[in-house]
Amino acid sequence: MRLSNRFLSFYLSFTIVFGWLVGWLVVLSVSRMERILHKLSSYYGKVDPWKGRSAFEVLLRTVISQNTSDVNTDRAFARLSEKFNISAKVISKAKISELEACLEVGGLYKQKSKRLKKIAQTIVEDFGGDLEFLGDLPVEEARTLLLNFEGVGEKTADVLLSFYFNKPKIAIDTHIFRVAKRLSYGGKRAKYSEIQSKLEAEIAEEQRLQAHLLLITHGRSLCTARKPKCYNCPIVDECPYKDKNL
Ligand code: SF4
């Protein structure tokens, strides 16, 4: 009887310690970025991406969004959609003055009008009028091809690849640059590729689009350029930023 009590007590202690150890091993095996994304997701919920009707439409809207607020991007895109049935063929034939009239609510509208027309002309002349074939190419090949268009940089290419083609690239915009640096995923002078590869190293391919959307949402709402609202931040415990606003 005494022996079986001892055994029971040993068994219970062993189970508790073993369970505790397994719990800690699970916690330690989750990357820091996974914890951050889990907390951001609990705080903001699921964020839906903007879905265009075609690869060209997503590319066009992303070019419009360069140096332009979301509100003005939406306005410019709405004007363009009202005026044109957007396709590379249609935009390649549009008058620059008509494009400018639609885009003037955003920044650099003259430059962007010329660029969009040129991009559309290249798509018509060199690729038969659309970019849907990019979905069948290996991601880096598709990316290299996009970077050859004038006015298409890494962020624009990665937005198209991830939003429209579901390729596992994290587009790094100005908000993600700031949030990632504050979270120590890149030093002060870190370039696009450095931040992108550090984030991608810790984020599973199927989570990268949602990670992009959550980090942008966080940069817009709490981790703002000026006076970040650290006192409300759901990832304050994970953040080593030394100038926290608490
Ligand atoms: S604690 Fe402040 S600086 Fe750090 S992620 Fe949150 S809002 Fe940004």
3D structure, described in words:
With 246 residues, this protein is mainly alpha-helical. The protein has two domains: 31-48 and 167-246, Orthogonal Bundle (Endonuclease Iii, domain 2); 55-164, Endonuclease III, domain 1, CATH 1.10.340. Helices cover 62% and strands 0% of the residues. The protein has helices at residues 2-29, 32-44, 55-65, 70-83, 88-93, 96-103, 109-127, 139-147, 154-164, 174-182, 192-202, 208-221. Helix 2 (32-44) packs across helix 12, helix 3 (55-65) packs antiparallel against helix 7 (109-127) and helix 8 (139-147) packs across helix 9 (154-164). The termini are far apart. Bound molecules: iron/sulfur cluster (SF4). Residues 182, 222-223, 228-230, 233, 235-236, 239, 241, 244 line the site of iron/sulfur cluster.
What are the main properties of this structure?
246 residues, mainly alpha, Endonuclease Iii, domain 2, Endonuclease III, domain 1, 12 helices, elongated, binds iron/sulfur cluster
Task: Specify the biggest β-sheet.
Answer: none
The number of distinct β-strands equals 0
| Count of discrete domains | 2
**Distance separating the two termini:** 59 Å
**How large is the count of helical segments?**
12
Topology:
Layout: H1 2-29, H2 32-44, H3 55-65, H4 70-83, H5 88-93, H6 96-103, H7 109-127, H8 139-147, H9 154-164, H10 174-182, H11 192-202, H12 208-221
Helix pairs in contact: 2-12, 3-7, 3-9, 6-7, 8-9, 10-12
The structure holds iron/sulfur cluster.
